[in-house]
Batch of 3 targets.
Target 1
Amino acid sequence: MAVCVAVIAKENYPLYIRSVPTENELKFHYMVHTSLDVVDEKISAMGKALVDQRELYLGLLYPTEDYKKRYGYVTNSKVKFVMVVDSSNTALRDNEIRSMFRKLHNSYTDVMCNPFYNPGDRIQSSRAFDSMVTSMMIQVC
Amino acid sequence: MADEALFLLLHNEMVSGVYKSAEQGEVENGRCITKLENMGFRVGQGLIERFTKDTARFKDELDIMKFICKDFWTTVFKKQIDNLRTNHQGIYVLQDNKFRLLTQMSAGKQYLEHASKYLAFTCGLIRGGLSNLGIKSIVTAEVSSMPACKFQVMIQKS
């Protein structure tokens, strides 16, 4: 299950971050923050890669000792999605994570195309986006 | 197809709407172009977010410009840009020999002075799209003979 979902703007400030209430929120903020460097590194390495490797989904960001895995995804508009996934009792397949990111991206696009949303603002008042993230957090647990 | 005409009609109404409100003093005169350009900017940002959702990551600046000329232009204006030229130092010239928003007006030089209002939105569209892809730019348009027009994109290096 996803325990934390974050959307980070082009300029590396958070647009949206939400985590499960059972654990320390600050810890997740820290986790997401440390992942950003890895995301940057992966993108710059990808620029030189072949066409078929230029996918938006970045995969597992780095191996960690604990059971919380971080996955990354970067849209063409350089908006970063970071997801922390708890894999203590269920091992998620890469494809499942990928489809979760696609769902997140679709919802983000809808938010972007909402005339009442100013690009670059925090995503605060979108109920559709909120409920989609909630569904992702419950879905797999 | 009716949906093709819809965008043209809406755009025409938008231009005349903005200019009408300028006559009534709601918008400062001379700010109309800026206003239309800003509308285009926001639309471009939204559109590019949607269009690039399923495409692979772009390789470089030229790759992005090609995308604008082909996919983006085809979706919005039903045709590709006819000619893309660049000096490889941040200046791109996009030439459209039959620009869709100008085809409704008589060809030649008769309405040349009015052409700029019908190009402002598109300039904003390009600028907004590029800015959402992480490229800051200045976009200007020029028309010498309708319905052909040129868009010049100057990339701002930060």
Target 2
Amino acid sequence: MNVKDILQETFAAISVNKARSGLTILGIVIGIGSVIAMISIGQGAQNSIESSIESIGSNLILIMPGAQRGTGIQVSAGRGSAQTLTQADAEGIQQNISLIKAVAPETSRRYQITAKGNNTNTQVVGTVADYLQVRNVQIDTGSFISEQNVRSLSKVVVLGPTVRDDLFGEGVNPIGQTIRINKVDFKVIGVTTSKGGTGFGSQDDIVFVPLSTAQRFLAGDDYLTTISVEAADKNSMSTVQQQITDLLLQKHNISNSQLADFQILNQQDIVQTASTVMNTMTILLASIAGISLIVGGIGIMNMMLTTVTERTREIGLRKAIGAKRKDISRQFLAESIVLTFFGGFLGIFLGWFISFFIKQFAGVSTSLSLFSIILAFGVSAAIGIVFGYYPAKRAASLNPIEALRYE
Amino acid sequence: MIECKNITKVYKNGNTETIVLKGISFKINDGEFVAIMGPSGSGKSTLMHILGALDSPTKGEYFFNNKDVSSMTDNDLADIRRDKIGFVFQSYNLLPRTTVLRNVELPLMYAGVPAKEREERARASLISAGLSEDRWKHLSNQLSGGQMQRVAIARALVNNPSVILADEPTGNLDTKTGEIVLDTFQRLNKEYSRTIVLITHERYVAEHANRIIHILDGEIIEDEKNIKSRVVNYSE
């Protein structure tokens, strides 16, 4: 019995009861389709998070203040509220560490901003000219804060696109207008290009002012909330991170690195952490979808068992005219594999359609990978074998005499 | 050539043993047309299963072309059935919703005969079985009982077996179509020298053979040889 014969027999058998075969296939279609859709949603989310992390800069190292950890009872304050980083630290990094391209100290806090009766509450970042390069900020119109602005404590502001839209309306050129931050007037000198991202992670709902101005007129102190450092290249990142740690420990007179009053985040670590989280999410989504795949597989098994019972006499006859056990089991196994393969094939289209639909109408980015398609095909074939094995074995082990007598 | 030596078959059902065949011995030569006759429960079906290599005897030896079949494995038995034996059943056992030709080709598929040769041989055996050609492309369930049984005979012939075993082949047919089927067997026996073993409970049917082995309660009670077989007279 060659492959062609087996396939012919299989298609003949499947087409005998089209409705039943169709419904059984539908179970697999839904299972495979949802697995593919879920993986594509998960991977899409992962890609968009990774790209939004990349958009905050390249080879970025972030230094943030943290309360000095000591022994005994500690009162934990929120991160960023601790006041341990100063301008001197930023300058120290700039002067002492060689493998860096630029350093951008910043102090940021949320303030109420008003302009012509419109008002919004947003993140106000006081920083220096290098911020543009370090954090990969693009200017849409006007200019960014200059070194001159910082030196002369200019009351100038660069708006993020969301803030511009909130205060002046979309498409309006706000350059030269005046806005009020915490009762201090600032002149708008530029608008940044949109970076995308939504909610709390938005890089667009933000305004920039000179660091010195922010410290003097808004915060009233000299502390920094973040120092962003751009390393020379990817390979030097961990070296730079170590050097900065050593330098700051020395400057802050802390001998034990466990008790550091600051925290250093490496962009690669952030990307890695986010990837790990998203991978877990993807696996979770796929596992939930996988349950429907298992249910589909049970449907296949159910149908195959019914078929074996229905065709008992036929099996008896086939055995009587010389079919061996392996001929019978191959035939039934082929039937279930063809069913699941067919279901898997359609399921890939369904999954592709769902992910396309979600991308188009729900605005969630999705990513359909070859890997998930191969996985789906493999899984559907495996389901055909696993759930078809028992019915096939049952068919093959029927006693021909009893099978021929079966009513 | 078929030779049974002291064939015994015992079925165990829990603690009760039923002895179905009690030491049966006989010999069937090539080219014979033999009827095995007995009432229901006499053990004739069990005997046919053993002759057809579907079952093995509990005790005794069964030689098929001088080969001992009684101790063969499942797979070897399947080979014997595939290459040496053609079955005709009371209830035809054709594959439903399948064409006549494909039904006849089925044994050749398991024998690994190439598709082209299969069709040629199926056509030849349909001609031998006397089914008119306009029916060959029909689905098996569109045929009458007599036609179905002739398809079954063609299927039994297609692998060119040493022996054809027919189990009550006329049981589901009316007298006239039964006659046609029995005539087909007679013709196959006379013209093609086929060895045929026919199992029946009807004297009338058995008389179409040249030899009648009577069995009762698992034993041979009479072996009528060289009987003048009843000639079928019908007009088609």
Target 3
Amino acid sequence: MALLLRYTPFLLYVIGSILAVDKNAFKSCEQSSFCRRLRDVKAGESKYELDLASLQISENSVEAKLINTEVEAQFKFSLTAIAGNIFRLQVDEVNPLYPRYRPQYALKAEPQVANALEGEVQPANEDPGAWEENFKSHHDSKPKGPSAVGLDITFPGALRAYGLPEHADQLALRTTGSGGLDPYRLYNLDVFEYEVESTMALYGAVPVVYAHSPKYTVGVFWHNAAETWVDINNSKDGNVMSSLVNLVSGSKSENSVEAHFMSESGVMDLFVFMGPKPKDVVRQYASLTGVAPLPQYFTLAYHQCRWNYNDEDDVTSVVENFDIHDLPVDIIWLDIEYTDGKKYFTWDPIKFAHPDVMINNLTASGRKLVVIIDPHIKRESGYFLHEDALANGYYVKNKDGSVYEGWCWPGSSSYLDFYDPKVVEYYKDLYSLDKFKGTTNDVYIWNDMNEPSVFNGPEVTMPKDCLHYGGWEHRDVHNEYALAHTVGTFQGLLHRSSNKRPFILTRGHFAGSQRYVAMWTGDNAADWSHLAVSYPMCLSEALGGISFCGADVGGFFNNPDVELLQRWYQLDDIRSVKSNVEEPYLFSEDVRNRIRTALRLRYAHLPLWYTLFWEHESTGDPVIRPLFYQYPSDENVFDIDNEVLILAFYRGGSIIPRKDRPRRASSVMHNDPFTLYIALDSKKSASGTLYIDDNESYEYKNSNKYIYVHFTFEDNSLISNLIDKTDFPTKEWIERVIILGPPSDITSAKLTSKSLGTVTLETYYDGEQKSLTIRKPGVSVREPFTIKLF
Amino acid sequence: MEMRFTKNFKLINALLIVFVFVCEILSSEVPRPRGVSLSRASLYPPEKDFTCFDGSKTIPFSQVNDDYCDCPDASDEPGTAACPQGIFHCTNAGHKPLNIAASRVNDGICDCCDGTDEYASGKACQNNCIELGRSAREEAQRKAELIKAGKQLKAELSQKGIQMKQEKQVKLNELQKNKEEAEKLREEKLTLKKEAEELESAALEYYRKLEEEIKKKKAEEEAARNRAEALENFNKFDSNQDGYVDITELQTRQNFDKDRNGEVSEEEAKFFLSEQMQANSSPPAESEDSQGESDDMQDGDEHDDAHEDDEEEEDHEPEHHEEENEEKPTDITYDDETQKLVERATSARNEFYEADKQVKNIVGEIQGIKDYLEKDFGPDEEFAALEGQCFHYEDHEYIYKLCPFEKTSQQPKSGSVETRLGTWGRWDGTETNKYESMMYDKGQSCWNGPQRSTKVRIECGNENKMTSVSEPNRCEYLFDFVSPAACREVPIDVHEELHDEL
């Protein structure tokens, strides 16, 4: 099942950004005390030794004391085998001054212990920034003093490393190092007008690295939610360091990749995935942090968003205009202006006085609504949410225990502390229909600004010495805040509509976010370079477990010219979660026609995407895949990150189920028939799958109400079979079969199935297309059938 | 082949056939495939094989509307959603017939008021054509009455407009005559001015030479004084009288101690050394000039205050420069005769300027009227009366303003600055009626977006009034405006169409 999307390379070279990120607003490694300290530690100069006398080896684990030879501090070292060819390496202090934080949400469950590697734990030298740190006008008090952890990992034999989303950079990780690139920074930040080709932090953080060579692929997951920097050294880049290592080890310049993880606080907890292939490491990672549950079908269709829709009439007329111009659309998005003065869970009493009527108008034509809910809460007396949060202590606190106040869209705001189970319980209730009045079961949620974004905070986020539930400092939990927020939203939607799969789009994210949300690449720009970088960005997220990744079509900042806009629509696949540009009907007729063609193609392929998402949930395999994933031993593809496997360009050997009848929305396509596209390989065979259920509920899980069809084409016969012994009462049928690169001299076809018996079908060649069409098999997809060519 | 077809059809929906049959009997007496209008029924003779309209293929008639697209032009599937480009016709008896895209057929959403587009989706659509037809007729009736009433008002407006243009034309003719006279006068004054100036110039020649001599003398005296001063200073610093001022000599002088640390460093000394040399090498006149410039700046500030609302600073330099550069009055006095000639020339000049101004004024006025006469106020000048007026519309947040043929704007009720939503651009209606909307473009730019613009939709009404404002697309505003000027007879097609297929 591999299709290939390829876009012409000229796109990559047309780069001319007029936007610029303000780099001074964000720290470099040199400006971050712990990064500076840990980076100074040279490999091979470890002051830590394992006390072999304390070594205890059991069936599944190795435990020992780890001693710092300089200060005689004791640590507990353990190495455990986890089910599925995974190892877990943990180091913690035996007598800690303060307990160290362990992320609460990244792992889907505590890993099951089952039935080698090199690691060096590095100490920190005293640095003036160890006990307090100033950045711009912000002061970080660091009451617990230095607590950074770091680890060097070497992958001998590796040719490339991938991972560490989210960065607006190429897919294969570049060599960083003092004097050159700053380390890849993982610290969720609201970066205004971010730039491409950068290792600067962005909105999300997934601390997983995969090291790859033609022979094997391994990976590591650094289970830590604090600010993290990762230096990468690939010996192919001719770094002095690696040549030294080669000299010392005497190895004959075997390539290797090193990853140096440096986190400001938290526990040292590393998972090692033993591969041996890209598919295996990604699955191993998914076995720990989980997979994306199958989204509702409509979420894969076209979303229209604009900042902003002014009022109810505006929303209604936008949809009308889409219909007038015969452009499909499934979801309309409302940005912050729908609220009453930026108070979430309220509606503007004048512009959105009848939200229920507006929503019913939308759903009457098969559409849905998404509204924004951010984690900052307006500090306005009389606002129920603020009053409740104040009265019950639901807000994040300052280090002195008072409520923390920062600036965001509403002005003075405070931030809900989602680490407190009471807050999550309270928050989840807010989404119920009697609380969030005017919403219906067809309203879904957009969680933005949840890095969290604080306009007047250090690096536009919350001070690190703020306090969360359980006494944890914000520094310990920062990268997990958005995930904790979206867990609350997810529970809220489930609580509200128990048999509808939630849809939440988030900007901030962390390892494990895929279990709850889709993400998008934030406020990108209407620029060719941003269109280009959306490929490696989403591919990297997909390897990091988050397949449901998109970019604003057309960019958020600035307006794209029509050429860029059309290309963006044409290259639009699942990477585009929403479109944030002028509605496509506003453009000239020829532009509009091209966009319509592109959108129809997207809608035609929805069954394929939906099938891939279901397969992702079952196996952990990413929905979008870079070429090295599919062809791990072909070194030519290791650096290709502008192509996504799937769509537009069918690889020989695949069978693609499509819905070629255009409709105004995906929700009204459910009874439409399929056209099967069979692209034969050199052996004149092909195969493919198709997954079908009710597109919205959990019946597929709870009552096995789905069908999973396997198509094979061999020896001039198309055979359709159900893979699982399940059923779903669908009305969908096969209207057409198109064979690409068909056998010659076919004059007719015979279909055989239980309900139809044997019927003769008309066939005809299309000389131009070099294809053979089988006319109207008319058989239901529910029943197995065979079509034999004559 | 026939058998296979029946079987497949049975599989999809056996009920469908019955339903189709019943529907066709009910909707029309002329048998024709579903989704075909009465006027096209003859294109589908059931006793023959069907050939696609584009001639690309011939298929058995049983394959028409069999839910499979055979013809690239969609002609074989007028009643199903099988062809992407297909068109479905609903009769909508009691209301207007409608053509919808085939993609709307059986999609679970009622598009035709007679519900015929949802014959197999399971969606029960109500037939509300009668009600819709009735209210459409009522609406048409109301409009017709409005137009009838409005036509009288429009005629008055039109008369007013024509009259205004006529008056302007009369005025224009008058001005053109005045212009000729004024130009003649200017010619005369110019001749007088030239004569007076020639006499004046000759008389002043003597004094000009005299003045130059005095100036020259003064300059020489000044130079001598400067040299003496420089020498005195030099000798003061040149403590060792070696004919050179060196750094150590300067370092002994506390007044060169820039940083007030009690010592004159080498840098400080060097600084003053070069400063001093510069000062000596520059003529004193320059320092006077720089004094003048700083005055200028002050003037400039005042000037800015007076034009607060202009965002761009005006370049006011030349005006002041002139003043500053004017020669200072010398002490020379003219003899009586010269004085008289100068005065006569001055008054000739003034008279000429006056006459010239008069001509310019008239030319300006003529241009204004010409612009007005060229303005398109509608075929009968019916919109002319709107010019110069402004109309307001308030919503809960803003006051919107429409000043026809000038601009559109928006002002928050809280009273802050007005935002220009557009500047009069052009009539922007359809081909059949260009005067049904106006375009005001080139307004203020939106943040991260385009320039604002406003479309003003004009409909017939019995008064001039703004009735609504919206922003259908970002930074693109839509005003609705009613005016008797827009009342015109439109061919009412309701009756013809209603009877089309009954």
